[in-house]
Amino acid sequence: MIGILGGTFDPIHYGHLRTALDVQQALGLSQIKLIPLSDPPHRDAPTSTPQQRLDLLKAAVEDEPLLTIDTRELERRGKSYTVDTLLSLTAEQPDETFCLLLGSDAFNGFPLWKEPNQILSLCHLVVMQRPGETDPTHYQDRITHNPSDLSTKASGLILPLSVTQLEISATQIRMLLQHGKSPRYLLPDPVLQQILEKKLYQ
User: Fold this and answer.
1) How many domains does the chain divide into?
2) Predicted pLDDT of residue 77
3) For residue 123, what are the domain limits?
4) Where is the Cytidyltransferase-like domain (predicted)?
5) How many CA atoms lie within 13 A of 163 on its CB side?
6) Spatial contact of 61 and 67, defined as CB atoms under 8 Å apart
7) pLDDT given at position 17
């Protein structure tokens, strides 16, 4: 099974990286694809360029082979819709099982995404939760609490999974930099080094 974690990663930080590794280890995924979005449909456009965000991603995961970077969203024109990415991935690897990682807040809005039912026909969902958080209230007939269930079906299940909760946001990091303060220990040092060298977000 392969995990998929999309985001603007503007910039990538430990909140993204630690939770991705939590899921990989809990489910024994062969890898997690980090997919930077070009033009997200449900949020503001990124403040840095696609190439700048991609360079920061590369710096973040260069020592972690289980986290890989997939650039198909950056290469495709138009809005970055998850269903289009999944159609592309499953066409390339029709025998692979994919698990889409998303946070609880994102999952709350999932019914409003483009083609949510088609997404569920193409992958499983892993809803990353804060410790002690209750189950989602929609799609309850698809919810399982047994990670091994994901390997018995090609798609369509929803697994709530408690992950390390790091209250870090890219907005917080950008604000610190804009005010001349250090965001060290919120993101990997090689990422911060590139941000400072290229004077990003300042």
Assistant:
1) 1
2) 83
3) 2-166
4) 4-174
5) 27
6) yes
7) 97
How do 31-36 and 98-103 pair as beta strands?
Answer: unpaired
Residue 36 lies in a domain: yes
Q: What's CA 39's distance to the chain center, in Å?
A: 15
What does the pLDDT look like over 7-26, one tens digit per residue? 999 999 999 999 999 999 99
d(CA 48, CA 68): 21
Q: What is the pLDDT of residue 183?
A: 98
Cβ contacts of 70 within 8 Å, gap of 6 or more: 33, 34, 35
pLDDT given at position 97:
98
Q: Which residues contact 100 (CB under 8 A, 6 or more apart)?
A: 3, 4, 82, 86, 119, 123, 124, 125, 126
Give start and end residues of each alpha helix (H) in the chain: 14-27, 50-61, 72-75, 82-92, 104-108, 116-122, 170-178, 189-198
Any domain includes 185: no
- Listed as ranges, residues in the chain with pLDDT below 50 are none
Give me the CATH number covering residue 162.
Answer: 3.40.50.620
Distance of alpha carbon 99 from alpha carbon 147, whole angstroms:
11
Is 202 contained in some domain?
no
Note whether residue 176 is domain-resident. Answer: no
CB atoms within 10 A of CB 41: 12
How far, in Å, are 17, 81, 99, 176 from residue 154 at the CA level? 26, 21, 10, 43
